[in-house]
């Protein structure tokens, strides 16, 4: 078997991915048309031509997860940003660079993505769910920061720093200039945690 053949997903994985995409696309279309609160999971399943049980099999988190996922990608991406930072780059610089390339902070957004980000930001339940997903990364971010800085894993200052970093997307979401707010937030953190 060739290396390329090993990496290509099988038929079953492709079918699952297509179903997930159809459900997520249907949810976004309906949410933008009618508003988040006015759309049911049954309507989403119907639009995607699947059963409600199929929707929950792919998105156990319900309607919010259809737009924002389950958070597993966030924790892995945060850890990678810290572990794979450049030579001489601080943990805080790496985390700021990570956030600057995502969601409301990214300057490289097409119209459809910008519309989705604005929808999430302006929908209280989705914004609260997004905050919950970020905050759920606290333990893993604290652990990787401890590994990378040589501090003990139970270091309270690292746990506090992790929580503050993970609150930035929510705290800056409604700022007229989120990118400027991101830079200001990390400026404050650098003064509070020099050398991290």
TrEMBL record:
List, for all copies, the residue spans of the domain called HTH tetR-type: 17-77
Which PROSITE patterns does its entry note? HTH_TETR_2
- Spans through the membrane: none
The entry's keywords: DNA-binding, Transcription, Transcription regulation
Any keyword DNA-binding? yes
Q: Which InterPro entries match?
A: Homeodomain-like_sf, HTH-type_TetR-like_transc_reg, HTH_TetR, MftR_C
User: Entry's Gene3D superfamilies?
Assistant: Homeodomain-like, Tetracycline Repressor, domain 2
Q: What is this protein called?
A: TetR family transcriptional regulator
**Species name:** Streptomyces polyasparticus
């Amino acid at each position: 078997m060739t290396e390329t053949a090993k990496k290509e997903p099988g038929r079953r994985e492709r079918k699952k991915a297509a179903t997930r995409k159809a459900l997520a696309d249907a949810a976004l279309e309906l949410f933008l048309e009618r508003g988040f609160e006015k759309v049911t999971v049954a309507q989403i399943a119907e639009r995607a031509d699947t059963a409600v049980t199929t929707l929950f099999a792919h998105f156990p988190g319900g309607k919010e997860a259809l737009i924002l996922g389950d958070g597993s990608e966030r924790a892995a991406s945060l850890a990678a940003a810290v572990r794979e930072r450049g030579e001489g780059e601080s943990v805080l610089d790496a985390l700021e660079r990570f956030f600057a390339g995502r969601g409301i902070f990214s300057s490289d957004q097409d119209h459809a993505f910008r519309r989705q980000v604005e929808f999430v930001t302006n929908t209280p339940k989705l914004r609260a769910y997004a905050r919950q997903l970020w905050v759920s990364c606290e333990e893993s971010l604290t652990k990787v920061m401890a590994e990378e800085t040589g501090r003990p894993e139970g270091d309270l200052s690292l746990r506090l720093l992790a929580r503050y970093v993970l609150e930035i997307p929510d705290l800056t979401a409604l700022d007229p200039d989120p990118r400027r707010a991101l830079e200001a937030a990390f400026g404050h953190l650098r003064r509070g945690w020099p050398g991290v």
